[in-house]
């Protein structure tokens, strides 16, 4: 070290120490003390210090709850959109793959940013070549992009229209129509009444017929539940009885195309058109009991007046008019074979039927009818009410038609007679007061 450098350092050190001794160091010390004093609660104002200490912290559980619901909403909306695309275009479509990659990519980017904020911020800054981009801005942009993409998908979904002309399966290829007699409006001539001879669950001799019925001869309603997928899901049919004629059955069904099969999940995504079938019981019930091996139960509805039965029949005619004028979509939850019947029945029964969750669980519809007093609790008038188990035992029609030869009298009523064996058929009520009183009594007995 040179002599000049040595003296320079010496005088610099001395000068610094001198200035410190002359008050600069004390000034710095006073500043430090002042700062430490500012950081401590003042003893002169103990109330202020107490308030500072007891200041409530922002609750974090609300923040996390909000984040959970946002994540759940994003996940469910993504699943809905992907399923809608899948059922409309199939798994091999370019549109399906593009939508899947886009949706998953956007959600994966959001998840990565939320879980690895610092790493994601470095990656974003590196990709953009700047240090000023905030991850919160990127999150908002991703959510906005996903929302816009999903809304476009939602608009597309609701723009899908049902069609009348497709390559339909034979059993739903025709649409029921009707005309009224000019001199007697109770005389209805139905065309395209199905009367197939079923040989197997897929093979049948096709037959579409014309049948004239007299609504003034209506004598009652039977509801049939056909179980094909466990105890919770059943197909519901309604049969109208006549005084001197064989019954006529109506069924809301999906209008399947050739090669198409039913899927309860696909029924949420505008995959199936809705069809109304008018058919002979030897066709539409026989195919379920004998050809397909489904378990079918037939329940005669009690405590009805003829005008209610007639009004429900008219509702089916109106439904046929509406479907012929404009096709509609089947929906597994809102427009299926069971709750459409309930909507119509509630309109014609002056709200006698209460709302119940079992309307959407079709397999439990008989229990709902029993609790609502629409199944007579004492049909044989022997003083001992029937339980629901007794109703299921008596109304199980598969054993009654096992081995039935269905290719005999195609316009006979033998099949309809056999499925009603050991089932008491209730008469129509004479008045509304009697009907409501008997229904109330049956409901009380059922409990």
What does this structure look like?
- The chain crosses the membrane at residues 63-89, 95-116, 137-158.
- Residues 205-362 form the Lnb N-terminal periplasmic domain.
- This is DUF4105 domain-containing protein.
- Residues 15-49 are annotated as: Disordered.
- Residues 23-45 have a biased composition (Polar residues).
- The protein has 3 domains: 3-52, no CATH class; 60-158, no CATH class; 171-446, no CATH class.
- With 447 residues, it is of the alpha+beta class.
- A hairpin with a 5-residue loop joins strand 3 (197-198) and strand 4.
- The longest helix has 30 residues, at 60-89.
- Helix 4 (60-89) packs antiparallel against helix 5, helix 4 (60-89) runs parallel beside helix 7 and helix 5 packs across helix 6 (117-128).
- It has helices spanning 3-21, 24-39, 46-53, 60-89, 94-115, 117-128, 135-158, 281-284, 286-291, 306-325, 339-348, 365-371, 388-395, 414-419, 432-446, and strands spanning 177-180, 187-194, 197-198, 204-205, 208-214, 218-227, 234-242, 248-255, 273-279, 295-300.
- The strands form 3 sheets. A 5-stranded antiparallel β-sheet has the order 9-8-7-6-10. A 3-stranded antiparallel β-sheet has the order 1-2-5, covered by helices on one side. A two-stranded antiparallel sheet has the order 3-4.
- The chain is built from 15 helices and 10 strands.
Oligomeric state of shown chains: single chain
Domain unit count: 3
Q: What is the averaged pLDDT score?
A: 83
| Tally of individual helices | 15
Question: In which range does the helix fraction lie?
Answer: 40-55%
Order of helices and strands: HHHHHHHEEEEEEEEEHHEHHHHHH
Largest sheet: spatial strand order: 9-8-7-6-10
Beta-strand residue fraction = 5-15%
Profile the largest sheet: 5 strands, antiparallel
CA-based shape: globular
Report, as a whole number of angstroms, the end-to-end distance: 109 Å
Structural class: alpha+beta
Find the count of extended strands (DSSP E, 2+ residues): 10
Sequence stretches where pLDDT stays below 50 over 5 or more residues: 10-29, 37-42
Specify Rg, calculated over alpha carbons: 38 Å
Biased composition (Polar residues): 23-45
Domain Lnb N-terminal periplasmic: 205-362
Region (Disordered): 15-49
Organism: Psychrobacter glacincola
